[in-house]
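User: tokens in, sequence out, please.
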């Protein structure tokens, strides 16, 4: 937020000229009108709440496990575990603050500007500086880098070839309303974006701004008949009789319409294409879905990379500790703390195998869903490292 362009300035200087009407209307139900105007628009709903809550729970569980390890450690190891617990605690506090700020994201109209509000911060976009409004949800938009904070919750400034991309949104880039200004692109995600654009156009029209790229000075050219009438009525000698208008009026002939050829209304048979071999089908699916769509998503590819590294670490850790393992290893306990299930050292290899199966299955499902719902695909991929971390902790406990 610190690199936001200075032109998107704080509206504290406007408070003296424009009364702040948003404070009394922030609690108004969504969609309610006051003086036939929409003043406050909330951010669109997304998976941001769910993903943030899952992250908070995972970090909280990690803090508890680290504190348990710190209680059984001694000396410098305890200090290291406590420092790690403090770091994860700070991360949990940060996630909680961001979750609290998610419902505060809104877009408020004042007399001559649009105010973007989030977590106590306010940025002003003057209506006179909006050059164009772009909203094309079916068009793919790719940013050069990842946007914080997590899928469904974006507050960032990213430099792109078309300018600085300022985001205060809960939807992915292609589903945002993009306001093009001389100093960058303001990407927001109001609820009911079509109605929001209509309200924005109405307010710009009230200020005399061109709407949606239409030049107000452009007029419809007059016809030759109307031009002849105008010249006849403004002659220098003052004559404008009906006869003179008939003389000076050019003859206009009706355009001849060429005969249209008859259309063949019979259904056409589609040419049968040769059936593809399974190898070609899998190659096309790999190229179009996995490589071009899945791996091009920075969040999904990063999570898959973590999911590949964790099983390798599990195998390396188990291999390094395999020689000193006893013949019987407890892996499950009942409610009173007695061992209910044991396994051999070779049985521990199933934990890395399960981690690999989770990686393959979730990646395949996410690849099929990446073109339908990117958030759901990312949610499936996010479950890979979470599950693998749980399996890694179980492996460490079994070995120790």
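Assistant: Sequence out:
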């Amino acid at each position: 937020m610190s690199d936001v362009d200075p032109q998107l300035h704080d509206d504290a200087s406007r408070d003296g000229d424009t009364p702040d009407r948003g404070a009394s209307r922030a609690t108004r139900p969504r969609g309610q009108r006051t003086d036939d105007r929409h003043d406050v628009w909330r951010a669109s709903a997304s998976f941001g709440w769910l993903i943030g809550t899952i992250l908070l729970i995972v970090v909280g569980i990690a803090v508890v496990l680290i504190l348990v390890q710190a209680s059984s450690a001694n000396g410098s190891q305890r200090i290291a575990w406590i420092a790690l617990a403090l770091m994860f605690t700070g991360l949990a506090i940060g996630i909680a603050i961001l979750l609290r700020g998610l419902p505060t994201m809104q877009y408020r109209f004042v007399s001559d500007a649009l105010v973007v509000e989030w977590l106590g911060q306010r940025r002003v976009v003057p209506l006179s500086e909006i050059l164009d409004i772009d909203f094309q949800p079916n068009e793919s938009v790719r940013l050069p880098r990842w946007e914080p904070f997590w899928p469904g919750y974006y507050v960032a400034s990213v430099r792109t070839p078309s300018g600085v991309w300022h985001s205060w949104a809960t939807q992915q880039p292609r589903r945002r309303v993009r306001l093009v200004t001389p100093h960058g692109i303001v990407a927001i995600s109001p609820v009911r974006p079509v109605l929001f654009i209509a309200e924005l156009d109405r307010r710009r029209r009230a200020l005399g701004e061109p709407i949606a790229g239409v030049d107000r000075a452009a007029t419809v050219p007059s016809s030759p008949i109307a031009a002849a009438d105008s010249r006849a009525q403004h002659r220098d000698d003052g004559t404008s009789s009906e006869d003179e208008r008939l003389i000076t009026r050019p003859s206009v002939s009706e355009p001849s319409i060429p005969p249209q050829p008859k259309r063949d209304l019979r259904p056409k048979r589609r040419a049968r294409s040769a059936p593809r071999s399974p190898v070609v089908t899998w190659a096309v699916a790999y190229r179009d879905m996995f490589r071009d769509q899945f791996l091009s998503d920075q969040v999904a590819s990063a999570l898959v990379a973590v999911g590949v590294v964790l099983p390798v670490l599990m195998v390396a850790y188990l291999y390094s500790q395999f020689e000193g393992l006893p013949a019987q290893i407890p892996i499950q306990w009942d409610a009173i703390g007695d061992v209910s299930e044991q396994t051999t050292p070779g049985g521990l290899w199933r934990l890395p195998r399960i981690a690999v199966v989770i990686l393959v299955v979730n990646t395949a499902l996410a690849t099929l869903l990446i073109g339908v719902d990117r958030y759901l695909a990312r949610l499936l991929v996010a479950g890979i490292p979470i599950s693998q971390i749980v399996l890694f902790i179980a492996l460490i406990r079994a070995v120790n």
